[in-house]
Amino acid sequence: MLKIILLWVIGIFILLQAIQIDIPEPPKTIDPQKEMQAPKEIASLLKTSCYDCHSYQTTLPWYGNIAPVSWEVKSHIKDGRKWVNFQEWENYDEEKQQKIYKGIAKSINLRMPIPMYMKMHEEAKLTTKQRKMIRTWAESFVKEEE
Ligand code: HEC
């Protein structure tokens, strides 16, 4: 009995592998001029903590191709890039850039980087001081509306 259950589990697992999410291919040429320019310390924090999901420079971990985990990982990358791709920054209009700055200031304390991601990526963890630095930097661009 146990053997049959085990075979079923393995079988289903193998079948799941056929269902994969595709991340759109990055463009062949990525114009470095389009990348967001930030002070060095900020840029380097964004690169280590955000670029996996918010740029074309994605390093997919080994489990990133194994369903069902891959569905979660790849949808994060897909949705993350849609929200902001720091390498597409100069293509965004002012309204979108404002929305992103505001979003960063708001989400940097709790929501971003995604907590699950940080469990697997020690290097992406941000200290309270680093979060504050990013928030202050993002807020400095937010234009107050009347
Ligand atoms: C593991 C992938 C991942 C990482 C790493 C990540 N993000 Fe995100 N981010 C997402 C996804 C997915 C969304 C859109 C869905 C959502 O809001 O949960 C998102 C949304 C956002 C938003 C939109 C507002 C919001 O809170 O929904 C902002 C701003 C943002 N991310 C900033 C950042 C910054 C800044 C970092 C680095 C400090 C970062 N993200 C790291 C995946 C990621």
Q: Key terms for this structure?
A:
146 residues; mainly alpha; 52% helix; elongated; binds heme C
Task: Give a structural overview.
The protein is mainly alpha-helical and 146 residues long. The protein has one domain. It has 7 helices and no strands.
Report the uncertain regions. Answer: none
Q: Which word captures the global form?
A: elongated
| Gyration radius, in Å | 19 Å
What average pLDDT do the residues reach? 95
Helix content: 40-55%
Q: What ligand molecules are bound, each kind once? A: heme C
Q: Structural class per helix/strand content?
A: mainly alpha
- Summarize the biggest pleated sheet: none
Q: How many structural domains? A: 1
The total of helices stands at 7
SS elements, strand count = 0
Strand percentage lies at: under 5%
Distance between the termini: 70 Å
What is the string of helix and strand elements?
A: HHHHHHH
